[in-house]
Amino acid sequence: MSTPDFTTWSRETATQVETALTELLPASRIAPARLHDAIRYSTLGGGKRVRAMLVYGAGALTEAPAERLRIAASAVEMIHAYSLIHDDLPCMDDDVLRRGKPTCHVEFDEATALLAGDALQSLAFQLMSEYKLADEPAVQLKMIQLFAAAGGSRGMAGGQAIDLDAVGKTITLPELEFMHILKTGALIRASVLLGTHCGKSLPQPDLDRLDRYAKCVGLAFQVVDDILDEEGDAATLGKTAGKDKAQSKPTYTSLMGLADAKRFSEELLADSLQALSTFGPGASRLREIADFIVHRQR
Amino acid sequence: MSTPDFTTWSRETATQVETALTELLPASRIAPARLHDAIRYSTLGGGKRVRAMLVYGAGALTEAPAERLRIAASAVEMIHAYSLIHDDLPCMDDDVLRRGKPTCHVEFDEATALLAGDALQSLAFQLMSEYKLADEPAVQLKMIQLFAAAGGSRGMAGGQAIDLDAVGKTITLPELEFMHILKTGALIRASVLLGTHCGKSLPQPDLDRLDRYAKCVGLAFQVVDDILDEEGDAATLGKTAGKDKAQSKPTYTSLMGLADAKRFSEELLADSLQALSTFGPGASRLREIADFIVHRQR
User: Fold this and answer.
1) Contact (CB, 8 A) for B225 and B188
2) Which chain A residues contact residue B148 at CB under 8 A?
3) Which residue of A112, A129, A164 to mutate against B (max B Cβ within 10 Å)?
4) Does the N-terminal or the C-terminal CB of chain A have fewer CB atoms within 10 Å?
């Protein structure tokens, strides 16, 4: 059986995750139906599933069972979906368009969107504790711990708080980087580590290398997001383009200029690949994902 | 050493939980400072700590180590605090007063309140996975699973969704009960079971009895809340009184009348004590808590 190329693999992975989420999320007919509708509306049917790809890519390196990766990838995508629902709310970014369709609070209402996000976070932790994700339960507890830390006040939620606080302010590049390491980087890092821990255990230096890879791709993801937001239009992005500039949010392109931001994204790609240099072919998917993150068009 | 009476014990327990939360929540000086301020503002300094008492009371029955109960009680109170923050938001109950002080979004802002709730939920799961709560890691995973289920769309968040949907509608007593079993009951039930699992393992029939106890006190808690809301004033309750009626939310008093609601709360108390009848003195605190829940004045 030949190894599928990256385009095929990423499409198959996205399909697997979509199927998993369809099965794992509560059905719309279960009460409270409107809440479950909102959860499914916002989690299914879209997105690049980059975080899920990272779970699967890291799991390939440690030969992790597919069933474990299915659960971990779904949990990560649930946390991502919850963060987008809350991020789009009027008191946050006040966005009306996401993945080419109305945001959750526009399609439903604000209260339902708030609770859909809250329930998705609970559900992600329920999955992470209900299914077997590691040979040793103690390892699984560690996985839940790093997953929870990635979402918290010194992770994703903290990054969003700093982001909001930065609107209309002049911030420095290190401040911008700190914000993004929390806001986007923490969950991307967790995706890589969760996928890794689903399989054979690795020595600490290898885990450190994967962590460095994850930090680089996490930051690259954000830099490229800023570049695409600067260059793009709503039709390609599936969300409101130029929004950050209009809200005078600090971005890599506004702080560095477009050309330097592009150079920076290439440097981060090179660094991420360098971090994987000792791994051999087991890390091929992770290398391809890094390349995809930096060279994607949306 | 004599056993302290219930008033002393409950005061000591509340103090222990307050100290634990003070230590376990991120310090205000840690970035993002405003988010951590909001988290501490909304979690510390108040509340009856009924859920924490249930954790400790159930732990007394299974001779659970104090350190485990400290963590489990703190995690439960964090989830409770997050639910109150989100429940008070303008898109939900739009309340300005909580525990006698301005609600989180009034004291800070809506976005900060939203993120403070989100981060508190993450932090609760971080605690539950970081500290040792059971002899066997596999038992601890089960604890996290039941804790997550209690907060999710078929637990607390689901109950809130049904509650919102019921505003201004005529609903039946069974529908009201279903709503409260999710909204308040699920986390109260989780508090009892988490406290129990922190100690010696019990046979399934005993766990079922504790579950029945928890369901009765959970429902009693809500019935008494409705009675107090009907009778009380803001000074005693520390929150806006008569609010449910003003929002034409269905309550036990509006559906049953005040006298029948009081009788119902006494029946639930009797049922909860009946469920504990085989347990002996180890369950004394749980009995006292049930009595406190039904006969409290605020």
Assistant:
1) no
2) 122-123, 125-126, 129
3) A129
4) N
Q: Which residues of B touch A86 (CB under 8 A)?
A: 114-115, 118
Phi first, then psi: what are they for A74, rounded to 5°?
A: -65, -40
Nearest-CA neighbor of A88 among A70, A69, A107, A75?
A: A107
What pLDDT shows up at residue A298?
78
Q: Which residues of chain B does A129 touch, with a Cβ-Cβ cutoff of 8 Å?
A: 141-142, 144-145, 148
Closest-CA residue of chain A to B115: A157
Which chain A residue shows the shortest CA-CA distance from B82?
A118
pLDDT at residue A246 tops 80: no
Q: Max Cα separation, chain B? A: 55
pTM: 0.95
Beta-carbon separation of A92 and B86 below 8 A:
no
Q: Do A118 and B117 touch (CB under 8 A)?
A: yes
Domains, chain B, with CATH or none: 6-295 (1.10.600.10)
ipTM value greater than 0.85? yes
Task: Tell me if residue B30 falls in helix, strand or coil.
Answer: coil
* E strand or H helix at B189: helix B186-197
Percentage of chain B exceeding pLDDT 90: 85
- Chain B residues with CB inside 8 Å of A140's CB? 137, 141
| Cβ-count burial A57-88 (b if 16+ within 10 Å, e if not) | bbbbbbebeeebbbbbbbbbbbbbbbbbbbbb
How far, in whole angstroms, is CA A246 from its chain's centroid?
A: 24
Does A32 sit within 8 Å of B86, measured CB to CB? no
Averaged confidence pLDDT in chain A: 93
Q: Which residue has the tokens 């059986």?
A: A1
CA distance B58 to A288: 52
Three-state DSSP at B166 gives helix
